[in-house]
Structures are given as structure tokens and as C-alpha cells.
Amino acid sequence: MIRQGRSSRRLIAATGLLALGLVAGCGGLRDADGTEAAIAEQAATMPGLTRGEGQDIGSVARNGLLMSPSVRESASAVSASADEVRVSRAALFPSLGLSLGAGTGDAGRGDPSLELEGNQLLLDFGDTKRAVTVADLELQINYITFQKSVDDALVEVARAYDAVAVQADLLKVRRTQLAAMRELETLVAERAASGATASPDLLEARKRLQAAEFLVHDTELALAEARDRLTRLGGQARGGEVRIPPGACAARDDSDAMRIARLRLVQSELKLERAERAQLPRILLSPVARSQSGDDGVRLGLNLGVDSDLLQGGALTARANAARNSVGGARAGLEATKLDADLEARKLQRDIAAGNRRIEMLNRQIALLGETRSLYRSQYLDLGTRQLPDLLDNEEEYHNRRAERIEARSAILASRLQCAVLERSLRQTLGVSGNSLYGFPLAPDAL
């Protein structure tokens, strides 16, 4: 009993010494490195994004980012990628394992034994470093995706904020139209009562009045839905006009999509290099301390191992072929992304120019229809030379063109918001730049 007690104490002491030596090199969470360190360094100089207290677009934009589930999800993906980099990098540092076991038979382990073993990678011809780089590239991709989700959320909130104002303006137009149609219906009813006009004219006037009532009803519903959407996205129901300064709206070679495509290509090339070198050996150094029941003392040793994957049932070749195909796909994706970026910029420029021209045309037509309103009224009511349908058609067209002008301005805003994203000026315009969110800077150039 005394002998076993001494043996146990010596085992514990030796185990403790070996553990302390290895834990000094492999214990704890290591400091940020690479992309994670660059992101953290920039975020440390920025205040955290806080809620907006006003009802302006800047406050709604802040609240929209804080409330956005897609932004939160993207931020979580960045944090998870940073941990994956740590996991890959951990293979470069010592590891420590403890095992307790016993067995029976000629090939068994025999009496109970306690074994403490460490491992240190000495050489793997750069495979682990390539794995770390692949993980770091994935972190960069997820970080850029986070920045893209921020821009998408800002665009969505800004459009929802503008949509409330658009529907409110449309409701004013439709109510004005309803009032005009009600006035005309009253005048026609008076003429019909005096026998100055036929009953079909009265029926036509009432039909147009009911159509105007439906338009008011539908617009009221659309306004309520727009307010609900803004409440969900930005935390308030009051919207307003969003002013985005016009810009060049040119495609950038360092856009988010282009950077992600380039990173995907580099990542696929590294994966191909790893697959082609998968059969290269790995050399590991393994100190070990072992104590078996009944032994007087602890046996120490140092092992040197060489591992190599020679055959895996065709998996090595298949993995290399898959990586080679991924490289080809990434190159094609890069070219397609560049083409899409150019086409998107051209479309935005075209849409803005066409929208401005359309507004100019609508302004001229609204002015003309406004002049013919009074003329047609006089011709129908005073002179009797104009048919009622002509008067009603002109009235409807006048208000419809006013509604189209409001919608055209909203469409131009949507294009300008996307242009601001391309030019990386949207955050500055909405007043959210210079802050950090979930520990990440609201700046796309942190890498």
C-alpha cells in the first residue's frame, strides 16, 4: 500500500511537470492574428453604433441596422470564421492528451495505466499554413459579406422610409381626385335634375366617382402597409423624403462582389495546392509519460513520428480533381462578376437618366392637362360642346400623371441608393459611418 501510494504521488508529480511544460505552449485562447487582428484594430478606434432618437432618416438607418436579423446573422458568421482560423492555426502549436486504460490478453494493455502524451508538429511542408490561409480567406469573405449586408439593410430601410412618404403623397393626389370627381358628379346630377343632360351622363359620372373612391381606399391600405413595414425595419411608422446626392454611378474594380470573387479564386487555388500535396509526409514530436499499476515510478519517453497518406481508395485523386474544377469555376465566376458589375452600373445610369426624362415629360403633360381641365369644364358646362366622357377622362389622366410623377421620383431614388452603394457613399449620407457594429467597423476598407 505504501509502495503504491508513492508510485501514485510520483506519477502525479511527473504528470504535473509534463503538463505544465506543454500547457505553457498550447493552453488558452491565442490572440487575434491576420485579418481578425486588422478588423479588431480598426473597430477599437470607433464608437459602437447606438439607437437613433429622432424620426429623420439617419435615426431610422441606425435603428434599422440594430434591428436587422440579416446583419446580425452575417456578424455571427464573421465571428465563427475567426474561430475557424484559430482552430486551423492551433495545429501549429503543441497539443496534450491524457488517457487511462487497461486490458487483458496477450495484445491487451494489461494492468491499469495512465498516459500523458504531447504532440508538436515539426514539418508538414506548409500544409497547415495553407489551411490557415484558406480559413483566413473565408474570414475575409464573410467580413465583406457582412459589409454587404449592412449596405443592403440601409437600402431596404431607406426605401421603406421613402415608401411611406410616397404613399402619403399618392393618397393626397387620390383624395384630390375624389373631391374633383364628387364635384363633377354633383354638377352633372344638378344638370340631370333640370333636364339639361341625359341620365347616361349621370351614371357615367357616378361610375367614375366610385372608381376614385376605390383608388383612395387602396392607397390608404398601401400607406398602412408601408408604415407597418417601416415599423418592422426601422422601429417607427413615420417616413419622409430621402435625398441622395447624384453621383457618377461607375462600377468599381474593388466592389464587394469583385473582392469576394477574387478571394474565392485564391482560396480555390490554395485548396488545389493542398490536394496536390496531400501525400507529402508530416513529422511530429511526441513526448510521453506513462505509469502502470504496480510500477515503481513513471516512465518517460520521446517519440518521433512520420505520417503520410499514400492511398485512400481514390479519394486523394478525386479531391485534387474537385479542387481543380473549383479553380476553373472560380475564374469563370470572377469574369462573370466583372461583367455583371459593369452591366449593373450601366443599367443604373440608364434608369436614372430615363427617370429624369420621364419626370420632365410628366411635368409638361401635367401642365397641359391642367390647362385643358378648365377648358373642358367650360365647354361641357357652359357651351355644351364637349362630351362628359372627355371631361372625365381628362380629369382622371391629370391625377394619374401626378401619381406617376411621384412613383417616378421614388424609382430614381431606388437607383441612386444602389449607386451610393457602388460609390461607398451611402453610409456617410445616412450618418452611420465611423461607428462599429457587433465589434466590426462599419467601413468596407478595413482589410
Task: Kindly list the characteristics that best describe this protein.
four-stranded antiparallel sheet, 447 residues, Outer membrane efflux proteins (OEP), 10 helices, 67% helix, two-stranded antiparallel ribbon, alpha+beta
Could you give a short account of the major beta sheet?
4 strands, antiparallel
Query: Which stretches are low in confidence, meaning pLDDT under 50 for 5 or more residues running?
Result: 1-7, 9-20
Number of self-contained structural domains:
1
CATH architecture: Up-down Bundle
- Cα end-to-end separation: 64 Å
Query: How much helical structure, as a percent, in the residues?
Result: 55-70%
Could you give the order of the helices and strands?
Answer: HHHHEEHHHEEHHHEE
Number of strands: 6
Q: Which structural class should the secondary elements be placed in?
A: alpha+beta
Percent of residues in β-strands: 5-15%
Output mean pLDDT.
87
Any idea of the CATH class? Answer: Mainly Alpha
What Rg is obtained from the alpha carbons, in whole angstroms? 36 Å
| CATH fold-level label | Outer membrane efflux proteins (OEP)
The CATH H-level superfamily is Outer membrane efflux proteins (OEP)
**Largest sheet: spatial strand order:** 1-2-3-4
What is the overall shape?
elongated
Count of discrete alpha- or pi-helical segments spanning 4 or more residues? 10
Subcellular location: Cell outer membrane
Protein name: TolC family protein
Keywords: Cell outer membrane, Membrane, Transmembrane, Transmembrane beta strand, Transport
GO molecular function: efflux transmembrane transporter activity; porin activity
